[in-house]
Amino acid sequence: MFQILTQGAPDSNSQAALTGKKSFHIRLASGSPRRRALLQDLGWNFEILSPDVDETPLPGERPEALCERLARLKAEAGAKTPGPGELVLAADTIVVIDGRILGKPSGREEACAMLRLLQGRAHEVMTGIALEKEGQILSGVERTAVHFRPLTEAEVQVYAATGEGDDKAGAYAIQGKGALLVSAIEGDYFNVVGLPLCLLGRMLESLGLGLEDMISCRERR
Prior knowledge:
Layout: E1 2-6, H1 14-18, E2 25-29, H2 33-42, E3 45-49, H3 63-79, E4 87-97, E5 100-102, H4 108-118, E6 122-133, E7 136-148, H5 153-161, E8 182-186, H6 189-193, H7 197-206, H8 211-216
Parallel strand pairs: 2-3, 2-4
Antiparallel strand pairs: 1-7, 4-5, 4-6, 6-7, 7-8
Helix pairs in contact: 4-5
């Protein structure tokens, strides 16, 4: 599920303003090429923002709370940037294993360490997602279980050497060569890529956009 968080004085007509609207424009508060590609595949109108937020976890903060908070912070920061588009979309993806949060590796050595930790086991990918419109923020978290096949040290080194996982949480990319490391997933595949599209669609529906609007948006670009 997702929750609505209101900041400042919300526009009482914000939902009505979107109800029945046949087109929409998103401001994507993320520099992720994967998220950009997913929105492009849907044919949606969007522009890219690059908000700068402090991603340091709070003391004792749970993983799901962290990624949702960061997504909200990015959406808030994006909303403060002037530009077209009535909706600001932000997301934050993390990998969790044994209660430990794995972000992007700092270098090749840490990437290998992450892969050694993940190999032969299941871990969880969590993506916090937030939508901002006129001071109203909807946010939620999607969770997907990912199972890695066992890897030898040589295989860890071979995959890490591709550099594919250098800028990705957990040091792998399921949509690329990293697919060869994954034996199974339980949940939303697109969540592992970085943007849970089904959850996003449900959130947009709560703002008054129908599935028909989301699908036919491609025809109006």
